[in-house]
Amino acid sequence: MKNKVINLLWPLAFGVAIILLWQFGIFHKLLDLKPFQLPVPSEIASTLAANLPKTLHDCGVTISGALIGLIIGSFMGFMIAAMATFFPKWGYGGMIVVTALNAVPIVALSPIMNLWFSTGMAQKIGVVTVVCMAAMAINAYSGLNNLKPHSIDLMYSVAANKWTIFKKLRVPNSLPYIFTASKINIASSIIAAIISEYFASSTSGLGFGIKDNLRKAEMAMGWSYIVVASLAGVILYCIILLVERDAIKWHASQK
Amino acid sequence: MKKSKLTSLVAVIMLILLAATGCSSGNSATPGAGTSDTSKPASGKLDKVTLQLKWLPQSQFMGYYVAQAKGYYKDQGIDLEIVPGGSDIIPEQQVYNGVANIGVTWVSSLMKYQSKGWGLVQVGQIFQKSAMLLVSKAATGINSPADLKGKKVSSWFGGNEYEIYALLAANGLNKDTDVKLVQQDYTMNQLLKNEVDAASAMTYNEYGLLLESGLKDSDLHVINMNDAGVAMLEDCLFVNSDWIAKNQDLYVRFLKASIKGWADACADPEAAGKVVYNVDQSVSLAHQVYMAKEVAKLVVPKGFDPAKIGYIDMAAIKQTGDLAYKYGLLTKPAVISENTVTSKYWTEATAK
C-alpha cells in the first residue's frame, strides 16, 4: 500500500513541478517567450472556465465523430482480418490494401474525404474509419492466426468445423490483440478527428477551435482546446484499460 | 536505491533544461545575424532582408517579385529573401520570432496581434481596397446581402470571417441564427458542387478560379465588401518594433525598391504575371496574369496616383479597426498611434 502511494506521488509531484515552473515564467525565460506567445496555466484555466459550454460542445462533436469512426473502422478492420483468415488465398489481398491505406498521411486523407462527403461530420468519420481500419486488421489477423501450438490440431481431432474453430479458438485468442489495437486506435482516432477538422467544412470541433484560435492570436483559448483534447484522450484510454481488465482476466498481461 | 532514482531524475531535468536553453539561444541568434550590418549600400556588401508572405508565391505579391527580378533590391544594397506563406504559417508570428524581418498580412489580423501585446508596427499599405467578395450562383437567388438569410455561407475563418460578420450585421442578420457558417477550403469546390450557397472569394484568386471552371460573370452573383460599406484593409507591410528601431534606413531602402517594383507591376500586369510564373509554377500562367491584373486594381485603384503606392489611408485603417472591434475580432478598440501604424518611412521613401 505504502509503495503504491509513493509510486503515485512521484509522478504527481513531477507534474505539479512542471505546472509551477510554467506558471511562474521559468519556461518563458528559458525559451525566451512572452506570455502572449505561451499563456500561463492560470490564464488557460480561467479562459477555459469562461468558455466551458462552447468547448465542451466542440469536444462532444469531435469525440462522437472519433468514436463512430473508431467503431466502424475497427469493425471493418476485423472483418478484413477474418476474411483473410477464412479465405487465405484471396482474402489476404484485403490486408495488403489496408496496410497500404495505413501509409496515407491524415493530412492528405482529409482534403480527399472533403471531396467525397459534404458535411464535416461525415468527412471526419470517413478519415477516422480509414485510420482505425489498419491497426485493427493487422492486430486482429495476428490474434486469429498466432494460435497456441497444437490447439488447432486438437480442434481438428474432435472434428470441429471452420466456424467452430473460429468461434471457440480464434476469436478468444484474438481478444488481447484486439484490445491492443483498440488502445492504439483510441489515440489515433482522436488525432485523426482533430486533424480532419482542420480541413472540414464546419465550424465546430476541437480541431477547428485549436486552429482558428491559434491563428487569431487567441492563444489562451487555443490552449484551452488543447487541454480539453488531451483530457478527453486520457479519459477514453482509461475506459479502454478498464474494459480490457474486465474482459480478458485470464490473460498474462492482466495478472 | 532511492538516492540514485533522485539523481537520475535531476539529471533528466538538467538535460531538458539544457536542451531548452540550447534551442532558445539558437533561435535568438539567427535574426541578429542577418541584421547586424546596416551600413551603406555602396560598399558592395548586401544587407540580408527576409520578407514573409501571407500566402503562396503568386501575383498577389507581384511587386516584390518584379523588384527582385529587375534588381531593384540589389540597387538599394539589399539581398532579399522572399519566404512563401501557407495556411498555417502566420506572418505575425514569423516576424515577431525573427524568422523574417518584414511581413505581409491583413490589417485586421495585425490589429488583433497588436491588441494582444505583440510588438509589431504597420509600416506600409499595399492594397488600398478590400478584395473580399461573397459569391453565389445566380440560380441561388442571392441578389442582395439580405437574401443571405437561411443560407449556407462559407469562409476561411482564422480572422478572415469578420467582413462577412460585418456584412451580415449591417443588413440586420444574426451570424449565429440567420445563416449557417461553415469552413471553406482553398478551392471553390464547395460552391461548384452546391454544398454551400455563398462562398468567400478574393477578386484576384478564387473568383478567377470560378471563371476558369467554366462559369461566366452572368452565372454569378457577387457581393463586394467595398460597395457594402464593410471593407477592411488587407495586404499591408509590418515589422517588429525592435527590429525597425535599429533598421530604419534599411527598411526605407526596402520600401523604395518595393514601391518601384509595384509601380512597374501595376503598369504592366501581364509581364508581372509572367515574372511570378517563372518563380513558381504552382498555378497556370493564365491564372497568374489574371491575378496580376486584378491585384493591380487594388494597389492602384481608379483615380489613385501611382506615385502614392504604399500610402496608408488612415480613414480606411480606422474603419478597419472600428469594424474589427464592433464585430468581435478585437475585445477593445484598436489603438491607432505612431507605435502601431506609421507613415513616416513611406514619407521618407517617396520623398523626391
Observed structural traits:
A: 255 residues; mainly alpha; MetI-like fold; 11 helices; 82% helix; B: 352 residues; D-Maltodextrin-Binding Protein, domain 2; 5-stranded mixed β-sheet; 14 helices; 44% helix; globular
Outline:
By secondary structure, chain A is mainly α. Chain A is 82% helix and 0% strand.
Task: Kindly describe this structure.
The complex is a heterodimer of chains A (255) and B (352). Chain A is mostly helical. Chain A has 11 helices and no strands. In chain A, helix 4 packs across helix 7 and helix 7 (120-145) packs antiparallel against helix 9 (162-199). The longest helix of chain A has 38 residues, at 162-199. The model of chain A has no long low-confidence stretch (mean pLDDT 91). Chain B is of the alpha/beta class. Chain B has 2 domains: 38-128 and 233-350, D-Maltodextrin-Binding Protein, domain 2, CATH 3.40.190.10; 132-224, 3-Layer(aba) Sandwich (D-Maltodextrin-Binding Protein, domain 2), CATH 3.40.190. Chain B is 44% helix and 15% strand. Classes of the chains: A mainly alpha (255), B alpha/beta (352). At the A-B interface, helix 2, helix 6 and helix 10 of A face helix 1, helix 4, helix 5 and strand 7 of B.
Helix-strand layout with pairing:
The complex is a heterodimer of chains A (255) and B (352).
Chain A: H1 2-23, H2 26-31, H3 41-50, H4 52-86, H5 88-102, H6 106-116, H7 120-145, H8 151-157, H9 162-199, H10 206-215, H11 219-247
Chain B: H1 2-35, E1 47-52, H2 62-69, H3 72-75, E2 78-83, H4 91-97, E3 102-106, H5 107-115, E4 120-125, E5 132-137, E6 152-155, H6 162-170, E7 180-183, H7 189-192, E8 198-202, H8 206-212, E9 220-224, E10 235-240, H9 241-246, H10 248-267, H11 269-279, H12 285-299, H13 314-326, H14 344-350
Parallel strand pairs in B: 1-2, 1-3, 6-7, 6-8
Antiparallel strand pairs in B: 3-10, 4-10, 5-8, 5-9
Helix pairs in contact in B: 2-10, 2-11, 5-13, 10-11, 10-12, 10-14, 11-12
